[in-house]
Automatic annotation (TrEMBL):
Transmembrane segments: 6-23
Organism of provenance: Candidatus Kaiserbacteria bacterium CG10_big_fil_rev_8_21_14_0_10_45_20
Protein name (database record): Uncharacterized protein
Keyword Transmembrane helix: yes
Region described as Disordered: spans on this chain: 93-128
Keywords assigned: Membrane, Transmembrane, Transmembrane helix
Basic and acidic residues bias: start-end ranges: 103-128
Amino acid sequence: MLGFIPFITGLIGITAFVLFRLWEAQRTERFFEQARKSLDSVAERLYRVMVFGEIPRHYRTKTATVLRFFSHHAIHTAVLALRSIERPLTRMSHRMRMSSSESKQEPSDFLKTITPDKKDGKSGVDSV
């Protein structure tokens, strides 16, 4: 169900976009003509800059260094967070395991009704 909602939202969005483009083509004029032309020129310029490397070498190397620095610190922080919760989770898991093994209880009445060879609390020969 969780993946169904984004799927339906995306499907409705794509359908609305296609219908809008068809309606716009039928009218033979575009909405927000000037704004769209300026955004198209910005997109073309950005593409040229990214593909052909019109950014000066100094900025490209500095950007790579900064990105590497931030990604390193993000990963380091994530590792520290995992280490800080590792010990409490290990202790809690150990306590839960030990407390469940110490309390040897009889099988529940429900279990006794559905499995006849569990009435005395022991498993049968062929069971796991």
